[in-house]
Write a structure and sequence with these properties.
Blueprint: H1 3-17, E1 19-21, H2 22-29, H3 33-45, E2 50-52, E3 55-57, H4 59-62, H5 74-85, E4 93-96, H6 100-108, E5 115-119, H7 122-128, E6 134-138, E7 142-143, E8 150-151, H8 153-160, E9 164-169, E10 173-175, E11 179-182, H9 185-196, E12 198-204, E13 216-219, E14 226-228, H10 239-242, E15 247-248
Parallel strand pairs: 4-5, 4-9, 5-6, 9-12, 12-14, 14-15
Antiparallel strand pairs: 1-3, 2-3, 7-8, 10-11, 11-13
């Protein structure tokens, strides 16, 4: 495989999943980790992604910018956010997870909507400060430099003390049989705590992530009340999810 093809694949994986491991890319491309490491280093130097220990993250995921120039599939994520807003009622208590789709939800919340909103995402918290009728409560803890969300024991303990009406979460991977998964164990533990802190969990997920899975399981699909994609609920790409105990929006 030519270097240009390898690097295109690396960029596609990073943009889709926000974060990737060098080992996973090497396995997918059937090349050495050293080869992938060199490619990632070049792409980082060209400011097309950000190299981190053992992997890479997308620029839109790692760098909070109001311009959103680096957000992958922004139109689809905007559509998902607009749908998700229809699920939020006046004066409700919600939690918004980290990630670019959740950030779009925070950005698009109507200025006139009154809410109490918990978040463990620094970019989401910054965006919510622009909403005059949203009371923002930031859940503290160890801040992940890769994902810009708080993780660890303190975060999980604080989540155990609340029960929100709805949480809006993202995921790296989702499969109708295996459920929601990630490659990062700490992120999985935090998401488990978010789900436990919620009366209802709403998954925001672009369709490109459907039918994919990774190492560590966050939850079963039926632990999620609603899955919101940019697709119409009757779209054939959602057929494998239609028979699950989940509402499609």
């Amino acid at each position: 495989m030519l270097k240009e093809e390898r690097q295109r694949t690396i960029l596609n994986e990073v943009e889709l999943h926000n974060r990737v491991l060098l080992t996973d890319i090497a396995e997918k491309l059937d090349v050495s980790i050293d080869t992938v490491r060199r490619d990632v280093k070049e792409l980082d130097a060209e400011n097309r992604l950000r190299k981190v220990h053992g992997g890479a993250v997308s620029l839109g995921f790692a760098n909070y910018s109001p311009s959103r120039n680096n957000v992958y599939a922004l139109d689809e994520k905007t559509e998902i956010a607009q749908k998700a807003i229809t699920l939020i009622k006046e004066n409700s208590v919600i939690l918004i997870d980290g990630g670019t789709t959740c950030l779009e939800l925070a950005r698009l919340l109507p200025a006139e909507l009154g809410l109490t909103c918990f978040t463990l995402s620094l970019p989401v918290a910054m965006e919510l400060l622009n909403k005059p009728r949203v009371e923002t409560i930031f859940i503290g803890g160890k801040l992940s430099k890769d994902s810009l969300i708080t993780i660890g024991a303190s975060t999980i303990h604080q989540l155990s003390q609340i029960k929100v009406d709805s949480s809006f979460i993202g995921t790296g991977y989702v499969d109708p049989k295996f459920g929601l998964t990630e490659f990062d164990w700490d992120i999985v533990q935090t998401k488990k705590a978010v789900i436990a802190a919620s009366k209802k969990t709403v998954l925001l997920c672009i369709s490109e992530k459907l039918n994919s899975q990774h190492r560590f399981k966050t939850c079963n699909l039926n632990d999620v009340a609603t899955m919101v994609t940019e697709l119409a609920p009757e779209n054939k790409l959602l057929d494998n999810f239609r028979n699950q105990n989940i509402h499609l929006l």
